[in-house]
């Protein structure tokens, strides 16, 4: 969130990121991820304290690959039981 530091006094990093998602604020890095289909999940405060542009914060995104289809459920998922 390299553009956040300029808005730090006016709003929280969560508000900043949400307003970027809504299109109210232009942040090229966050908009790039959104444009690629990533979903905004939240803010990680203090992720990189040395990053002055983001005031140390980072936006968390997730990308769910629509082409991925696991053959088996994960090991920690209980399989449905067949009735006899």
Keywords for this entry:
84 residues, 2 strands, single chain
- Low-pLDDT stretches are none
Strand content: 5-15%
What are the secondary-structure elements, in order, as H or E? HHEE
Largest sheet: 2 strands, antiparallel
Average pLDDT score = 87
Protein topology:
Blueprint: H1 13-22, H2 28-35, E1 39-44, E2 58-62
Antiparallel strand pairs: 1-2
Question: TL;DR?
Answer:
The chain has one domain (4-62). It is 21% helix and 13% strand. The protein contains 2 helices and 2 strands.
Detailed description of the structure:
The protein has 84 residues and is of the alpha+beta class. Helices cover 21% and strands 13% of the residues. The chain has a two-stranded antiparallel ribbon. The longest helix is centred in the N-terminal third of the chain and has 10 residues. The relative contact order is 0.20. The mean pLDDT is 87.
